[in-house]
Amino acid sequence: MADHWTILGAGAIGCLWAASLRESGKSCTLILREQRLREIAGKSTHLQPELELADDHRRQLFTIAIADKHHIESPIKRLIVATKARDTLQAVCDIAPHLANDAIVLLLQNGMGSQEAVNTLLEGHNVWAGTTTDGAWKATENPENPARWTVHHAGHGQTWIGPLDPSKAPFSETPLSELMSINRLTIHPCDNIQERLWLKLAINSAINGLTAVYLCRNEELLSCPNRWQQVKDLCEETTHLMTRLKIRCDINLQEQTREVLQRTANNYSSTFQDVSHGRLTELPFINGFLLDQARQVGMELPSHHALMEQLKQQGIH
């Protein structure tokens, strides 16, 4: 189908976008890991995979097509990559042979670094990046019915999408413009996506790692004076680095981070969720990325360095 979407990665964001596409009447396929597809096929051969979308107002159930990299039946023309940052390059490499020559690719990763790596890998393709403030989490799966997932849309946010190569066709002339019709998601085209990626990274770098250290909700970074001081120190260092790198930042990062913590007070960060489930985190692409950028210009970020060391001592990577 010409307007079919393929989503690589069935985590919270991948499932949210898949369910939102289905809610808007669009067709899509979720690409799973090979082992995960085998597990589902082994236990649920008689079941149609289902994706439940829940929010504060209602629950909806959609049938969903699934596949792995070995069972992609036609060239992919519209690809949304919603894998974790550290998994993205290999995951895209695995399905790159299935991309149509005129495929458009949208990357939805936290942090930075993975986007440029994929853009280099897919040279010649039209690669875009997005950053979102939508909140989502997946419920624990029922082992007796692994073909049914539930994703909770915990917070309605904003999504910005922009090209990694500004010379490409404008947003309105690409299939990405079709995403504007998804009522659930608020999507904005963006001419300078790098600035948006930096802003999201800057805020995440002051929140996510600390919530993993203290295993706390976002609100506890505000309510505890010592933790709030750590947040302020991280924001200050990041602001200095962005100034050094000549990256425009028109907001007060500390105040913007405070607003995010207040707005998401009851939320658990994605890093907290990764740690709680024994998964590797995306912090190497968040605080680790900042430390790499600082080293390249001869700067030190002692608060970010101390945070990463503390996480390492706690076995969080």
Explain what you see:
The protein contains eleven helices and twelve strands. The relative contact order is 0.12. The chain starts with a strand and ends with a helix. The protein has 317 residues and is of the alpha/beta class. Helix 5 crosses helix 11 (302-313). The chain has two domains: 5-191, 3-Layer(aba) Sandwich (Rossmann fold); 196-313, N-(1-d-carboxylethyl)-l-norvaline Dehydrogenase, domain 2. The protein is globular and about 50 Å long. Strands 5-2-1-6-7-8-11-12 form an eight-stranded mixed β-sheet, sandwiched between helices. A four-stranded mixed β-sheet has the order 4-3-10-9, covered by helices on one side. Helices cover 40% and strands 20% of the residues. Strand 6 (76-81), helix 3 (85-95) and strand 7 (99-107) form a beta-alpha-beta unit.
